[in-house]
Amino acid sequence: MKSSATDCREKHLLTKKDRCHCLANTASLFFYSTCIAITTISCFHFIFYHTNIKYTNNIHDFNQTHALIQPNKEIETCDLFEGQWIRDARGSLYTNYSCKTIPFLKNCFLHGRKDTDFLHWRWKPDKCELPRFDPNTFFSILGGKKMAFIGDSLARNQMESLLCLLSTVEAPKSIEKDAEDRFTTWEFPKHNFTLTAFWSQFLVTATERRVNGTDTGGFHLHLDRVDTKWSEKLPSIDYAVFSDAQWFFRQNYLYESGNLIGCIYCQEPNVTDLGPGLAIGRAFRSAFKAVNNCKKCKKIIIFLRTFSPAHFENGAWNAGGGCNRTQPIQRDDVNKAGPDWEYRKVQEKEVDAARKAGEGRGNEFEVLDVTEMMSMRVDGHPGVHWGNQWMKGYSDCIHWCMPGPVDTWNELLLESIKRRNAISSQK
């Protein structure tokens, strides 16, 4: 039997051992708790910090955007319209799913187009770079302004492209359109920017020819009378982009001062066939004259987008012609001897004359010369992928898929505006 003293010593040792055991447990608990806390904080940091950071798509674009605010930066003056299409893995800023305003007839993927190679080309000017479209830069320059696209369905095509590009940072709001959806206005409220399309397939007054009560598809064109449906809207416009031509290639009769002066493709013995070129030039002349003579207008910046060629192969549009290519052609393969270049020439001639006439009025006239670059893009049309229920079997080789090469027109538009503003700020 143990003595009392021994019993007491054992109790003392047990108590000490228990304390050490407890201390060890406490230390282990603290260690594991600390590890769990650090791990939890790291996870939250990774999830929330990395999710909220917005990276630029590429460093070159980032530098171009911020170069706008660098003092004494030399203004870029290279020719934006002389160049070639080069491969670009990035593709478009938007998709036919992300942009909710793509028109039904230009939504090529919706109507069965499978290839996507046509999205992976960018325009490279010979002596400089064309910056990728930056919606934030666009709004920073044009916030508070109103821009109108005036002309035919290709003018509308460009407006719809711009609408999609800008919608990547703000959803547009439709504020006005007519019953046929030919005159339409969109607003970006956060940026106080308004975008409008004015349908005018000839820019001048036109009435469709009827024979025995039936529409013929041809028109009576009064080349010296501007279409007032768009001209009366000019006082509210800051920027206007004109484009027109395709509707002139039909049996039209031409008038000036109310008198018949000739026709296009009429094949009548007593009427002179003047061809599309003259009519296109006179129509733009009247349109630009209306701009320069507008007494209620403030200063307007005018852009003319030059002729955009069609690419029907193996026949005309109504004779089995189509456009099934999936890649651009090379610059050396473009035929510059055709009539497309005549139409481009007469358009630019009228811009030059209007620019001189507009100097005293404060108006400015610029050119978006897309004729050569779009001559190479035989791959970017809807073709049979346009879902027109009334023209099954026919191809659309005039308009452009969205997204597609038409987005480049708005890259050129933005860069031209940036250059113009840079020059104005140094005067």
Structural class of the helix and strand makeup?
Answer: alpha/beta
List how many beta strands DSSP finds: 13
Mean pLDDT: 86
Largest sheet: 7 strands, mixed
Strand content: 15-25%
The best one-word shape is globular
Helix content: 25-40%
Could you characterize what this model shows?
With 427 residues, this protein is an alpha/beta fold. Helix content is 34%, strand content 19%. Strands 4-5-6-3-9-12-13 form a seven-stranded mixed sheet, with helices on both faces. α6 packs parallel to α7 (340-358).
Give a quick summary of the entry.
The protein has 427 residues and is α/β, with parallel strands linked by helices. The chain has nine helices and 13 strands.
What features would you highlight for this structure?
427 residues, alpha/beta, seven-stranded mixed sheet, four-stranded mixed sheet, 34% helix, globular, TBL, transmembrane helix, TBL_C
